[in-house]
């Protein structure tokens, strides 16, 4: 199966998992569960759960030879609940970011944001509930593999915590309030707000597939570079693509006076940086076992949009 | 050591744990960690972590005889990180409840609420970060006891989730908007908003101390009745005590037209219900091993305030 057929197949697995593992809209309190499902099931590329599922499949297909050769003992399990948990976290962060006290956005993926569709209090609680649901899913669905459950809790909570996802969001808010954000500030924001969550997608998939500690380190390296490449490409597209191509308002960053890679380094250097991080991500993936065709194509499709 | 000496000793253990296990205010982003510590370290009775620590001590002191007799194998560990995790969850729920889109409170324990001291966006993120920190603490500090780590994740996430803590909060908001909340509505709110979190304090302590499944069931029964008694007593005090005694504005519930036990059942029946739930909690605790003097006195002090 080639990439163009595999991608929608993975997306269907992710969508089905989301629909099945999130409480029904009729569960009491119905309004809260309706809002959670509205935020979660309204489309989206499902990039994060697809990364988790595809990474787990890498190890399952490879028969995890390294794990068998060494004395390393690992528990393996279906990666779908972990993939859904990470998408719940990603979605909660969007719901809270859209609130009036944050970015105050009315639209998300062409539909009213959760607080516009329901109300602010409901959106706040739905975000809180999606965050908590991530850990309910990990706790419930990996009960039979406690070491895996503990490792997933640790990795996912760390990636979502005050020094990573939320810390990056806070620094992003602070950077908007000052004109002189530095390259170091920008890297802090993107490493934590974007790369940490993409990294934990790969790591969670690796954990579920039975990756060794050395393989998990390679996944961390790949995730870090993928996250930075992904963000630099976003900055380049905002500066160069027209609104129709982008599907959202182009040039928003420059208009808002926002510090971006393009503003700090110029277009040519940004393109060079994006290529370097993409190559580094692919080089780390190449060291892993199994059939890397899909993951390699996925990384290419995410980071190669500027050529 | 008697209750009057033990209570402050437990409180000191809880305070020291909070100070030590929550990231320093200088950790980047400093503003976020300052807000988290401001919300968490500004006083409070520390009821929840004290319940967790005292329950764990019950089993440690008893030498967990039931666990030794049966084939039940359990991992035991220091309950302090779990106690701190639960206090982080309790605090996040207060920070988010105080926000303008929820209760819009300016004061909490005599100090400006977190969003008044900082700003709304910072308070929102600090609440998110405290919620996430609860699971970081469980993931990090119970890594050496993975089955315990997995059980704590499951129990704590479930108690904090959309059908318990957050669900109770949502139903509470909905009940304020309708005049005809029923006794069943009220019980749903208190079972989930109050009792579920008090129950998980006892259960987490029991898990850390090595309680058997049967003992955990007794702790669940005790927590459920303790939570309901606690809430009924709160309603009685709001209707009967004067503002000076209460330390907060008395009669607020009646003024707000809020459905309470006193409004639904009258003062005498409410007192009777509080006594019945207190007795049921104490009866469940009496079936546990170890020296129950402190826990019994604590339950009495929490629920005996109406006599």
Automatic annotation (TrEMBL), chains A, B:
EC class name: transferase
InterPro entries: Isoprenoid_synthase_dom_sf, Polyprenyl_synt, Polyprenyl_synt_CS, Prenyl_diphosphate_synthase
Keyword Metal-binding: yes
EC number of the protein: 2.5.1.10
Listed Pfam families: polyprenyl_synt
GO MF annotation: an example: metal ion binding
UniProt xrefs under Gene3D superfamilies: Farnesyl Diphosphate Synthase (1.10.600.10)
Cofactor: Mg(2+)
UniProt keywords, alphabetically: Isoprene biosynthesis, Magnesium, Metal-binding, Transferase
Signal peptide feature range: none
A single cellular component GO annotation: cytoplasm
GO biological process, one term: terpenoid biosynthetic process
Keyword Oxidoreductase: no
Entry-linked NCBIfam families: FPPsyn (NF045485)
PANTHER family: FARNESYL DIPHOSPHATE SYNTHASE
Family: Belongs to the FPP/GGPP synthase family.
This protein's name: Farnesyl diphosphate synthase
Species per Swiss-Prot/TrEMBL record: Lacunisphaera limnophila
Higher taxonomy: Bacteria, Pseudomonadati, Verrucomicrobiota, Opitutia, Opitutales
